[in-house]
Amino acid sequence: MNDSHNGSPAAKSGKYHTSPLPTDRMPGGIPFIVGNEVAERFSFYGMRAILAVFLTKHLIDSSGQLAPMDDETANIWQHNFVAAVYFTPLLGAILSDWLIGKYHTILCLSMFYCAGHAVMALVDFPLLTGIEPTTALAIALALIAIGAGGIKPCVSAHVGDQFGQKNQHLLTTIYSWFYFAINFGSTFSTLLTPWLLDRYGPGVAFGVPGVLMAIATFVFWLGRHRFVHVPPGGKRFVSETFSAAGGRALVNLIPLYLMLVPFWALFDQTQSSWVHQARDLDCIVWGWEVLPSQIQAANPILVMLFIPLFAYVVYPLMGRFWKVTPLRKIGVGLLLTGPAFAIVAWTQMRIDAGETPHLLWQILAYVVMTAAEVMVSITALEFSYTQAPKKMKSLIMGVFFLSITLGNVFTSGVNWLIKSQKEKGYEILVGADYFWFFTWVMVGTAVVYVGWSQFYRGQTYIQGEG
After folding, report:
1. Which domains does the chain have, with CATH numbers?
2. What pTM, to 2 d.p., does this model score?
3. Which string of b and e fits 321-346 if b means at least 16 CB within 10 Å?
4. I need a surface site. Which of 150, 155, 200, 307 has the fewest CB within 10 A?
């Protein structure tokens, strides 16, 4: 049987294809990957959407009494968790590219992911489990970080592995729709889980995302015979990683990733400091009260609107004036990030003055920040894949995700400094000053990036070529 539409059959090993089919059509495994991503992102963003509110409003002690954290401590926990989520991709990438391949890495680490959600759902029941809530919380977040982070570079690279030379023109489209799937799942979870927390408590609110993670794992398993299973590199992974091409790729990309650190330091605060600010906003819309953590749904909704808008309107319009390259898209996105945070800083200035601004001001900040995200995150994801040698796809994705880790470590460190100084009787970066500090860090980084990007030189690698 010839699996090709217009050429020789794809290479096979046992019952799985090990190279892309020579076809110009969409690969058959893509629906299973996208379906898995919708459910998995629902589970992750649902849990993460309510984490800040849970820590500051619902956390209890071992006796079952309320023992919430202050904002700075909650920010430290939340950003350290996100930092861990985006550090473990490097470990997952090594496991995948060196030892067992992307498919088995995703399947195995998803089990840790499911276990983490199960423990998370039990944090609110210390009298039943006998485990102190913060201890259970730490265990749950560690398991989720291993699962969510470990599979992350593998899933992204697994998408690209399905494409060969004849259908690589579809790669940009599918990465955009892949990102669309992430935000489709995120939208519903960000709206639903805060309501579940408010109505039914942490056990149900954290339990529902756990069920969705189990579904995500099952959907991925169903697609096993449709996927291209690129074999692990084994010894070749080590030699290729430290080859001239591998070294050049890392040297070329690391400055880019370092300049993405401030972007992530700002962007990921939409789920921490922006949520805290929303408590002081007028959140009534047409007579309906929007919960502070539900405002985060603006981001995935806007992403789904902006993906086609940018693909079919903004980028073609930009192309009339200059060549639209990945690095230029990222540069424009970085330049937009500072103004997005400036809007939040200005809103905080009004709160500090005793006013109660409407949540529409934060929505405006989301509009600008999401435009920046579309230009930075989607583009950097695809660009990282194309710039990585063939056996280093997941590893490069892992290094890319380290920029998110460092961004969250930076934010956590700033909050730790604020908290430690407060304990000594000193107040720093209070109110709007906190947001202005991050704004100016981003503006400075964007200026440096514009200069650096003029000198980038890299090489593109696509599976199935050469």
Report:
1. 15-455 (1.20.1250.20)
2. 0.83
3. eeeeebbbbbbbbbbbbbebbbbbbb
4. 200
